[in-house]
Amino acid sequence: MESYEGGCLCGKVRFRVSAPMLDSGYCHCRMCQRNSGSPVIAFATFPVEEFGWIRGAPAVYASSANARRQFCAGCGSYMVFQRDDLPQEISVNVGAFDDPTAFPPRSHIFSESRVSWLHIDDDLPRLQGYGVK
Q: In this model, does residue 133 exceed pLDDT 70?
């Protein structure tokens, strides 16, 4: 079984995922931009039952009526996104993994919110919202 670990910048909060990813991509939504301070974040999605915190506990922020973000209260590192309408899945910020190269993106989501000066030269699908081409 595949197993991947990661955590926050200060090391107080760590996690482990023990499953292959279900999906991955770049998110260009305004909430991810504001949350990360970056024009885009890379994410990988896993079955929630295969994800666990192995050190510390994250703080939780309800970023919208149906989504929560989890981060380290000490250093502020954003690690996890969860949608209430998809409780069986958890999306992890790829940059929080010890080996972020293990999760190549498969698509771009929320492309309608892409920052105009950012150009990622790939042939991946550009989707509106979570998945409309």
A: no
